[in-house]
């Protein structure tokens, strides 16, 4: 399976739609998926909205729990790769990233600060 690097700068604002949760490897046994080193793999649902297009949600797999990522929060995705897959008559594209991290929010500027230029 060949990985295709994705330029996240062209994806617009990325927001967490579904908070990180462990990826399930086997739904019958509820076994959690692990990487080669035994680290848990998590999935994060992320909204993607390019200029002039509708919002799409993609599920991104990432090794280790993304700390501080909550639903509705703007996120930064580092090292995003896409993979085409096929199993029988089913096919699709899956996404994996090196990291999903929260984007720090700027402190709110009050009207008084804007008026005096203290912001």
The averaged pLDDT comes out at: 89
How many H/I helices? 1
Question: Unreliable segments (pLDDT under 50, ≥5 consecutive)?
Answer: none
What is the helix fraction of residues, given as a range? Answer: under 10%
Write a concise synopsis of the structure shown.
The chain has 119 residues and is mainly beta. 5% of the residues lie in helices and 49% in strands. The strands form 3 sheets. It has a 6-stranded mixed β-sheet, with no helix packed on it.
SSE layout and pairing:
Layout: E1 3-5, E2 13-22, E3 24-26, E4 31-32, E5 41-49, E6 56-63, E7 75-78, E8 81-87, E9 90-97, E10 99-102, H1 111-116
Parallel strand pairs: 6-9
Antiparallel strand pairs: 1-8, 2-5, 3-4, 5-6, 7-10, 8-9
Task: Describe, in plain words, how this protein is organized in 3D.
This protein is mainly beta. 5% of the residues lie in helices and 49% in strands. The chain is built from 1 helix and 10 strands; from the N terminus they run ββββββββββα. The protein has one helix spanning 111-116, and strands at residues 3-5, 13-22, 24-26, 31-32, 41-49, 56-63, 75-78, 81-87, 90-97, 99-102. Strands 1-8-9-6-5-2 form a 6-stranded mixed beta sheet, with no helix packed on it. A two-stranded antiparallel ribbon has the order 3-4. Strands 7-10 form a two-stranded antiparallel sheet. The protein starts with a strand and ends with a helix.
């Amino acid at each position: 399976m060949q990985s295709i690097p994705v330029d996240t700068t062209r994806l617009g604002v990325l927001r967490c739609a579904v908070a990180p949760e462990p990826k399930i490897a086997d739904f019958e046994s509820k076994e959690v998926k692990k990487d080669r080193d035994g680290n848990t793999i998590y999935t994060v649902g992320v909204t993607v909205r390019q200029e002039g297009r509708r919002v799409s949600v993609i599920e991104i797999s990432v090794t280790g729990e993304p700390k501080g990522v909550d639903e509705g929060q703007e996120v930064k995705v580092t090292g995003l790769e896409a993979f085409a897959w096929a199993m029988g008559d089913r096919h699709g594209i899956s996404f994996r990233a090196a990291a999903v991290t929260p984007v720090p929010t700027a402190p709110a500027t009050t009207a008084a600060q804007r008026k005096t230029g203290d912001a």
